[in-house]
Amino acid sequence: MKSTAMAILNTRKVRDYRTVQDMLKTNAKGVWGNNISYLHVSVPKLQDNPISNPLQFVKKAHKSIKRKRNSVATILIEKLLRMEHKLKGSEEVAKNIHRTVRNSSLLISNMVGPIEQMAWANHPIKDFFFTLCGLPQSLIVTIMSYMGMLRVTIRTEEGFIDDQKLVWNLNKAFETILHEAQIM
């Protein structure tokens, strides 16, 4: 069975990020919100493509996603979603994205989060994570940064994955990638 991952992207340029104080000014240059697009990424079968060097696999996947992220298709999808939003409204855009998401096996989302500490009613927020809900995937991975620290959230369908095996395999994969990166 062929597996496809759908990566949801924020296409807003990093240089457009401003502090909250800058965005609250009446003549602010930065804009609120994100520009959303998505791309499909083939997931290789382990038995068809044995990974002898996990770092090489990560670099190859990163290069492929970066190439696709900067393609005309990603920009076109973003513009079509904006146009659909203006013509038909946010509910129709949501239905369109849901139909597209339904045809993928895995969903990956990344987000550059705040670099400054946030507060709620003057109480500092130490950590926060996000995940996408209401989607038909059995596995969803969301990645974000908050105050320069990486946060990874994995949401699975109940009973779909043995959580102890998943944690063990993730730790082993991170250790292997770290080891490979240190000897390169």
From TrEMBL:
<dbReference type="InterPro" id="IPR045034">
    <property type="entry name" value="O-acyltransferase_WSD1-like"/>
</dbReference>
<protein>
    <recommendedName>
        <fullName>O-acyltransferase WSD1 C-terminal domain-containing protein</fullName>
    </recommendedName>
</protein>
<dbReference type="InterPro" id="IPR009721">
    <property type="entry name" value="O-acyltransferase_WSD1_C"/>
</dbReference>
<feature type="domain" description="O-acyltransferase WSD1 C-terminal">
    <location>
        <begin position="32"/>
        <end position="177"/>
    </location>
</feature>
<dbReference type="Pfam" id="PF06974">
    <property type="entry name" value="WS_DGAT_C"/>
</dbReference>
